[in-house]
Amino acid sequence: MTKALVASSQLQIVLVEPSHPGNIGAIARAMGNFNSTELAIVRPKCDPLDPEAQARACHGVEILKSAKIFESCAEAVARSHFILAATSRERSFFKQQITPHDFARIFLPLSGIETFSLLFGNERTGLENEDLALATHIVNIPTNIENPSLNLSQAALLLLWEFSKLTDQPLESFSNGLEPAIANETEGFKAQLFALLEKVGFFKSFSQRESLRLSVSDLIARARPDVRDIKMLRGIIHRIDLTIKRLKEKQ
C-alpha cells in the first residue's frame, strides 16, 4: 500500500464537435475555476477563439489559446487510462454506467498515475457510438426526469467540480506495480483483433460488427488491462494470424 495523489493535471476535457463558441468559453472558465488546464477539441464546428468564446472564458482565455485540436476522438484520448463519456441517453451495451457520486468510490483506490479524459459531445447530437466505444465509463448526471436536459457548459461544470474533490488528496493506493494500459494501446489491440475476425469471415453484417465492437470495448473497460495484458493478447492474436497465413500458403 502506497501514498498517491490525484492531480488536476491528470484530467483532460475533450469536446467533440462543439458548435457554440459561448459554450467552449464557458467550459474554459469552469476549468480555470477548478484548476484544470488540459482542453482538447475534436473537429470544432466553430472557432474556439471566437470573440464570444474569449468573452465567456474570462480568466480562462489562456486555456482556450492552449487547447489542442484533433481530427478524431481516438487521437484526443490516446494517452488516457480512463475515459468518462458524459451522456443523458441510456446505453444498454455499457455496464459501467455511473453518476458523479461514484467518482470517489471508483477512482480513489488507484496508483496515482492514471490519466483521465472527460468526454462531451455536440450540443445537439451528443456523442456517437464510435466515440462512446472509446469510453471506459458512461457518466449520467441525475436530473429531474421531467426536465433532464443540461447545457453543455453546465454539465462540464458539474463534473469538473465532482472531479476536483479527488484532486491533491493523499490516497491509500493498492497498486500492484503494473503500468495500466492507455487508450492507444487498447485500441491497437481491438484493431488487431477485428482485422483477424474480418480475415476469417466472422462477421455476417455491419451491424453485427458494430455490436461486437461495443461489447468488446465494454469488456476491456471492465477488465482494466495493464500493459503486460495487452502485449500478451496481441502476441496471441499475432501467432494465430501467422498460423492462418502459413496454412493458406500450403493450400
Topology:
Blueprint: E1 2-5, E2 11-16, H1 21-33, E3 38-42, H2 51-57, H3 61-65, E4 68-70, H4 73-76, E5 82-86, E6 97-98, H5 103-107, E7 116-120, H6 129-132, E8 137-139, H7 152-164, E9 170-173, H8 183-199, H9 206-223, H10 227-250
Parallel strand pairs: 2-3, 2-7, 3-4, 5-7, 5-8, 6-8
Antiparallel strand pairs: 1-9
Helix pairs in contact: 1-2, 1-7, 8-10
Please characterize this protein's 3D structure.
This protein has 251 residues and is α/β, with parallel strands linked by helices. The protein is built from ten helices and nine strands. Helix 1 (21-33) links the parallel strand 2 (11-16) and strand 3 (38-42). Helix 1 runs parallel beside helix 2, helix 1 packs parallel to helix 7 (152-164) and helix 8 packs parallel to helix 10 (227-250). It is elongated. Mean pLDDT is 86; it is low at 1-5.
Summarize this entry quickly.
By secondary structure, this protein is α/β, with parallel strands linked by helices. It is built from 10 helices and 9 strands.
By secondary-structure content and strand pairing, the structural class works out as: alpha/beta
**How many helices does DSSP assign?**
10
Strand fraction equals 5-15%
As residue ranges, the low-confidence spans are 1-5
The total beta strand count reads: 9
* Helicity level: 40-55%
Main β-sheet: number of strands, strand sense, barrel status? 7 strands, parallel
The general outline is elongated
Radius of gyration: 20 Å
Mean pLDDT: 86
- Helix and strand element order: EEHEHHEHEEHEHEHEHHH
Strand order of the largest sheet: 4-3-2-7-5-8-6
Distance between the termini: 56 Å
